[in-house]
Amino acid sequence: MIQYLQTFVAVARLGSFSAAGDRLGLSQSAVSTQMRKLEESIGNELFDRQRRGTVLTHAGRRALTVAERIVGLYDDMRNGLEDELLSGTLRAGSIMTGLLGEVIDAVVEFRKRYPNTDVHLTPGSSAELLAMVEKHILDCALIVKPPFPVHGLLSWRPVRNEPYVLWVPQWRKDSDVGELLATQPFIRYDRRSHGGASIDHFLKQRKHSVKEFMEVDSVETIAMLVARGLGVAILPSTPSLKKLGLEIREISLGEHTFFRQIGLIERLDNPRAHLNNEFFDSLLATSPE
Predict the structure, then answer these.
(1) CA–CA dist 199, 177 (Å, integer)
(2) Which PANTHER family match (predicted)?
(3) pLDDT by residue for the chain (289 residues), tens digit each?
(4) What are the chain's domains?
């Protein structure tokens, strides 16, 4: 049956039985016979034989979508049984904290294990990358878990949880969170982002009154401003900030600590699922505990 599906996909892509036969090394009559048997098997006509040329029926167009998926999965299974045979291009995305954190290490590990693969990396915000995965522009993306349920054709695989902490310049010795928030200029993480909204909720819930100095939509930029002594900020304790080597230190929020979850988002119908699986394993292998 897989051969019939492969032939069906070839006919649909190439536009004729004869062209598909030439591509697959089959006679036109053999292609026609396979398509008849496929139609009998699924109980629907795939081609409109009343019209000139090779025209798919409505059922044929729907069947083609499924057939391409099945043929892709079959090829993935055949090519992915051994590491050295794994091939293809992984189109991955990542938030900037991921790119500065474990993603580069994961790509190095991934390419070391699977030298016949290529990786295309796209940076972006969590919302932007999620939309690109939904539209099949990306195969997967390392993002912050969305504030809404992930369901349908989307799949979520957690990598780690990052606690939010108060970041202060390294030279500051005091560690009273309430006092620092009340007396020092506060650099706010953009409230339009999920992280910024979570921080805003924490401040309101704990009734912290802050001296807001600036609002920025970049964890790394805020951390650099803190390092220059321009204020304090609540941000996640993420590996990328430690890699930047900034002269800042983190203060725990104690029992009121809240978290953001970092993970891999992908579509369940992605034909490159085997590459996503291996990339996820590389992320886990290189992600800090």
Answers:
(1) 14
(2) HTH-TYPE TRANSCRIPTIONAL REGULATOR (PTHR30126), LYSR FAMILY TRANSCRIPTIONAL REGULATOR (PTHR30126:SF94)
(3) 888 998 998 888 888 898 888 888 889 889 999 999 999 998 989 888 777 777 888 988 888 888 888 887 777 666 555 554 566 788 999 998 888 878 888 999 888 888 888 899 999 999 999 999 998 899 999 999 988 888 778 889 999 899 999 999 999 999 999 999 999 999 999 998 888 999 999 999 999 999 998 999 899 999 999 999 999 999 999 888 888 889 999 999 999 999 999 999 998 887 777 788 888 888 888 876 5
(4) 2-79 (1.10.10.10), 86-160+261-286 (3.40.190.10), 162-260 (3.40.190.10)
Please provide residue 235's backbone torsions phi and psi, each rounded to the nearest 5 degrees.
Answer: -145, 165
Please check whether residue 158 is in contact with residue 261, taking contact to mean a CB–CB distance below 8 angstroms: yes
Tokens read off for 11: 């006919």
Is 254 in contact with 260 (CB distance < 8 Å)?
A: no
Q: What is the pTM of this model?
A: 0.67
What's the helix, strand, coil split of the chain in %, to 5? 50, 25, 30
Q: Fill in the amino acid letter for 65.
A: T
- Residue that is written with structure tokens 């029992």 in the block: 255
